[in-house]
Recover the amino acids of this structure.
């Protein structure tokens, strides 16, 4: 077996300005065996473009190459290595240490480092061998942290969007690090001015006019996960649809950084689904009866609910008899319904029964609904049903953009991937 553990880290004198590429774990690595192998990878380097005579690239080159399962690889390799190439596409001498990149879930990952291959590069069915970066995730984390760096692997996910009532985001965090405990970790949200964010599981505060930080209230040990709900609200944006960007943050540099999630969130005017039905109304006496159905779409349980009459009426709800303004009721669970009968009288000139549903937790206005009393002797109802569906998150199948440099098989001298003060590269030039 040749060139096993072909990887090295260099500590830089100063922090790099470039945005580092994300490092994979076993989940991302497993994608390789499920994906279409054709041109799954892009290899980049400064290596030979011609072997007779030797000609090295004068500009950065890339080549798109196929994934080859280890069981089909002509070299003796183990699970710390990746094979790729064929169809006259290959890396060559001088490319060693350069990146092997693949796209997964809409972003690029550093899957491998060029290690070794055939002496005659780019021949038909020539297969190269690359160090599998995911197999060294723990080694990279340990060595960077031991040398004074700060790196972790944090996966943040937006599981679902509930967009009825007060919009809410179901989120989760997983510490995918091998040894690092993460204390200051959470989510950053970017939204329009006027949006507020609350959560029971996270401590949220406004960072700027459009930015919010929601920190997890505890420590995440390696492999530990946390989930919660971020509830959004806005008085000024009622009836609008707002784009919200969300991504995890931590004190450590997140080597597992995924593409930011951007979702479109509707801020509804009504946070209850209300139906008022007048089942009987007497033209002469003003007596009326019926029922009110309320469905709680606020995203939380309501402790105290009240009805407020907005018309000239004296109504009694359920067994409470006549009541003033407002008429108080009890708890309404999240997603629960309340169906309340009413009887009473309405004023002589009243042509519609109008109620407002309020609760103290949401902070005032909930919804206004009414039922027309035409001649006070008809059965009439109105209903508002909101069936908002969450917007799809951005697709996972975006094509890889071509680099500005051009070329085919081959590349240039040894190339590294920077992580703050560290440079990740292959340790030997074998090709």
């Amino acid at each position: 077996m040749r060139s096993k553990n072909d990887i090295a880290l260099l500590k830089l004198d100063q922090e790099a300005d470039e945005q580092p590429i994300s490092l994979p774990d076993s989940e991302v690595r497993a994608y390789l065996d499920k994906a279409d192998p054709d041109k799954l990878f892009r290899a980049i380097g400064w290596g030979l473009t011609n072997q007779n005579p030797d000609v090295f690239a004068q500009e950065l080159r890339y080549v798109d190459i196929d994934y080859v399962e280890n069981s089909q690889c002509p070299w003796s390799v183990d699970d710390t290595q990746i094979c790729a190439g064929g169809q006259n596409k290959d890396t060559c001498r001088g490319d060693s240490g350069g990146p092997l990149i693949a796209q997964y879930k809409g972003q690029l990952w550093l899957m491998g480092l060029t290690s070794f291959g055939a002496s005659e590069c780019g021949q038909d069915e020539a297969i190269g061998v690359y160090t599998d970066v995911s197999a060294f995730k723990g080694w990279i984390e340990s060595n960077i942290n031991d040398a004074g760096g700060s790196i972790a692997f944090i996966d943040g996910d937006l599981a679902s969007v509930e967009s009825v009532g007060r919009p809410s985001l179901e989120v989760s965090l997983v510490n995918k690090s091998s040894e690092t405990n993460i204390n200051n970790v959470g989510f950053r949200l970017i939204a329009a001015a006027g949006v507020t964010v609350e959560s029971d599981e996270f401590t949220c505060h406004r960072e700027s006019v459009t930015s919010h930080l929601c920190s997890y209230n505890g420590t995440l040990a390696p492999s530990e996960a946390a989930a919660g709900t971020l509830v959004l609200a806005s008085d000024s944006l009622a009836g609008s649809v707002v784009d919200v960007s969300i991504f995890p943050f931590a004190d450590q540099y997140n080597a597992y950084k995924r593409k930011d999630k951007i979702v479109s969130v509707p801020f509804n005017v009504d946070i209850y689904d209300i139906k008022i039905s007048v089942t009987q109304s007497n033209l002469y006496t003003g007596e009326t009866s019926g029922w009110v159905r309320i469905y709680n779409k606020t995203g939380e349980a309501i402790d105290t609910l009240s009805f407020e009459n907005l018309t000239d009426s004296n109504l009694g709800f359920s067994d409470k008899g006549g009541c003033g303004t407002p008429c108080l009721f009890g708890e309404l669970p999240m997603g629960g319904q309340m169906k309340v009968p009413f009887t009473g009288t309405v004023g002589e000139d009243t042509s519609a029964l109008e109620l407002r549903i309020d609760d103290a937790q949401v902070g005032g206005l909930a919804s206004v609904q009414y039922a027309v009393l035409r001649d006070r002797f008809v059965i009439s109802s109105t209903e508002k049903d909101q069936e908002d569906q969450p917007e799809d998150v951005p697709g996972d199948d975006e094509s890889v953009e071509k680099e500005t440099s051009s070329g085919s098989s081959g590349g240039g001298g040894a190339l590294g991937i920077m992580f703050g003060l560290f440079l990740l590269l292959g340790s030997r030039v074998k090709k």
